[in-house]
Amino acid sequence: MIYHSVNDLLRLSEENNIALWKVIMKADMEERQVTEEESFEQMRQMYRAMKQADTEYNKELKSASGLAGGDGEKLHLYNAAGRNLAGEYIGLVMEKAVKMGESNACMKRIVAAPTAGACGVIPAVFLAYEEYCHIFEDRMVEAMYITAGIGAVIAENASIAGASGGCQAEIGSASAMAAAGLAYLQGGSNETVVNAMAFALKNMLGLACDPVCGLVEVPCIKRNSAGAVNAVTSAQMALAGVKSAISPDEVIDTMRRIGEVMPKCLKETSEGGLAATHAAEDIRKHLENNSN
């Protein structure tokens, strides 16, 4: 089962009368020449690696730069105090996204989904959902296939790299993938799933990739939290029956076109955006002094 677009995924699901996640699983089986059990088990291990990274978060760790570490614990304490106006689930999503981003910056084992810089979005949405709603793991693994399929389509038709498409290609793609997966988990139809994906990606169009000092820490880690929350709100709109006026495949193509005209300084070069602020220059000088 070969697919190159969101429309292909929908068509193959309908023509073969199988669930959307199974289309993606069968494509994986054909590409890697593995059995259904082998494909499912590998996806399960990916999901469990996300769980492990979340469980092993260390609030005491700091990144080599000193710019990252400990903020996930601050969010945890804030949530535990019942002060987060966003509610229990969204609060947990925010917390887990930051924790995962900090673990990445501190060189802990994470899952690049779809990239290391965007590693916190999907785990935050999924792990928080499993914990909050007490869902069986198999169902979570099925949703992982949904995210993988959406990510593959975006990678083929646009980009998942900040260096070529800006942060819309990293956090934006991750948010779209997570939104689609969450819509599936909540019982959405195929149309609902892809509308959730479209909303999430549309909300991230044009997002610059401007890491301070070239490090995937500022503003990247906090953007994981924003991308995760965006995924949740996008899924809720789609589940409510709201439909995207622009088709999912056209949204992906739009991201590609925006990435092509985006200035080089906003595509991971650390030459523009937040990386060109006075505060960023102060951080650069501080890091240089510490390395001497």
Description:
The chain is an all-alpha fold and 292 residues long. The chain has one domain. It is built from 13 helices and no strands. The longest helix has 21 residues, at 137-157. It is globular, with a radius of gyration of 19 Å. The chain starts with 5 loop residues before the first helix and ends with a helix. The model has no long low-confidence stretch (mean pLDDT 98).
Features:
64% helix; mainly alpha; 13 helices; 292 residues
Q: How would you describe the shape?
A: globular
User: Sheet with the most strands?
Assistant: none
Low-confidence stretches: none
Mean pLDDT: 98
Q: Write the element-wise H/E pattern from the N-terminal end onward.
A: HHHHHHHHHHHHH
In summary, what is this structure?
The protein has 292 residues and is mostly helical.
What secondary-structure arrangement, pairings included, does this model have?
Elements: H1 6-16, H2 20-32, H3 36-55, H4 71-80, H5 88-105, H6 121-133, H7 137-157, H8 162-165, H9 171-185, H10 190-204, H11 220-239, H12 248-261, H13 278-291
Helix pairs in contact: 1-2, 2-3, 2-7, 3-7, 4-5, 5-6, 5-11, 6-9, 6-11, 7-9, 9-10, 9-11, 10-11, 10-12
